[in-house]
Amino acid sequence: MQNSLKNKLFTLVGVSLILCLGVRAQDKPNFVFIIADDIGWNDIGCYGNSVVKTPNIDKLASEGLQFTNAFLTASSCSPSRCSIISGKYPHSNGAAELHTPLPGTEIPFPLLLKENGYYTAQAGKWHLGTNAHRAFDRFTDENGYNNGNGGEDNWVRFLKERPKDQPFFFWYASYDAHRAWGADDFHITHNPENVQVPVFFSDTPETRQDIASYYNEIARFDFFIGEVRKELERQKVIDNTIIIVMSDNGRPFPRCKTRVYDSGMKTPFIVYWPNGIKDLGVLAKGLVSAVDIAPTILELAQVEIPSDYQGISFVSTLKNPSNETRTVVYSEHNWHDYEAYERMVRTKDLLFVLNERPNLTNCGPADSKRSPTQYSLNKVRDEGKLTPAQADIFVSPRPRVELFDVKKDPLQLINVASLPSYSKHLKEMKKLLKNWQHNTRDSAPDNLTPDWYDRETGEALDIERQRGIMPGVYK
Asked: Where are the transmembrane segments (predicted)?
């Protein structure tokens, strides 16, 4: 009798505990993290582009929180993504150069979610190496899945096939809008006559078609975001799901991708969360860095943040968009097809650049060098008709130090580092960079990885490809 009573009590306590744990699991938010490939921050409708068709992203922004000063730590796909998933700057996590896998000693934040009861899955583009696969219960990278088209084919499928008794985290990565173009036959297209041509491009029919094809890729990316939202609504989990939309680097065009200016490092960044964001359609104007994403998601999931993560959680901004968690962001440009070492410091008012390879042109990645937009610029150069803005990618030697007043010069076209009126600002920015490099153990090796491609044509060099020493001190 006594044992029977004990068993009943244990059963009652066990059921109560399960119910309590179930409530906690349901209270924890779900996450759908969606990252584009090579989409510039201002090539989205809600960021001011009146031509590109992004109704689904625009709707998320109008019903969520749109960040206007979000910056990446690198304007290259794999270093940028490795930085996001590791919560560290590229030179600190051992994956500073393009196509360098994230070391197995690093802790991807989805692994911590997985270990704390979340179902985690990845679908689409990867480029982080195989060591980070362990962070996901299900992944498409090198795993027999078809990642065709823009890489979005498995997004809705994975949502449908997820276990329904766990909170979830999905890392959805698109190939849109990476070259070569593959969305010109998609059902959403753009007229070349209507596109917006940046001042550092040459306005030719070839350039306009190049941009229109790029817009088509963005439209396909946007379409599948809408499909994901529909599925979340169908499953009635949309209210407690946080959707984050961003890009891994700037548009794949000259003076954009790989560059540390806003055209390369600034990213669209939208957070949608019906249960958590109450001030709908508000602009969050404070600075945030891609390195802040990992600690933010972990805090929202009530998971302990590793002590060596280098970002700052911006949960307070989600609760109150006027809250600013940081006053400065840092970014870097390391090897991406070509030898490079640049460091960038950005405040709301100023952008500072240190270039330790000023003898080299800052020409952009190889695929951009082989683009119609680049060929149009080459033609104008050969005719001796380049404007100063267009000439930037050809300049060699370059300034070792650059300073831009981004309030007066939002496109970063005029270097004011030599002006006496900016000497105090220049000194302050140099100090910020020096402290950051010291605290994060940055370094500038003499024998960086050299060029693997021709700087004029973008074609592969006939050389034995060897890596140099990556920046940073990594063990």
From this structure: none
Could you tell me the pTM of the whole model?
0.93
Q: Which two tokens stand for residue 315?
A: 């949960």
Tens digits of residue pLDDT in 52-81? 999 999 999 999 999 999 999 999 999 999
**And the tokens for 430?**
């140099």
Helical ranges in 235-364 per DSSP H: 262-265, 293-300, 315-319
Q: Rounding to the nearest 10 degrees, give the CA dihedral for residues 301, 302, 304, 310.
A: 50
Cβ(82)–Cβ(93) below 8 Å = yes
Q: What are the pLDDT digits (tens) for 191-216? A: 999 999 999 999 999 999 999 999 99
Which of helix, strand or coil describes residue 65? strand
How confident is the model at residue 368, as a pLDDT? 97
Query: HEC string of 437-474?
Result: HHHCCCCCCCCCCCCCECCCCCCECCCCCCCCCCCCCC
Sketch the domain layout of the chain as residue ranges. 26-324, 332-439
Listed range (27-41, 90-104, 143-157, 418-432) with the worst mean pLDDT:
143-157
Task: Report the CATH fold assignment for 332-439.
Answer: Arylsulfatase, C-terminal domain (3.30.1120)
How many Å apart are CA 462 and CA 449, to the nearest integer? Answer: 15
Nearest one of 71, 131, 76, 121 to 101, comparing CA atoms: 131
**Tokens found for residue 304:** 């302990």
Contact 83, 74 (CB under 8 A): yes
288: left (phi over 0), alpha (psi -120 to 50) or beta: beta
Q: Is residue 278 scored above 60 in pLDDT?
A: yes
CATH of 26-324, one of 3.40.190.10, 3.40.720.10, 3.40.50.300, 2.60.270.50: 3.40.720.10
The chain-wide mean pLDDT, for the chain, equals 94
- For residue 279, what pLDDT is reported? 86
Q: Which of 249, 246, 175, 195 is nearest to 373 (CA)?
A: 195
Torsions phi, psi of 266, nearest 5?
-80, 140
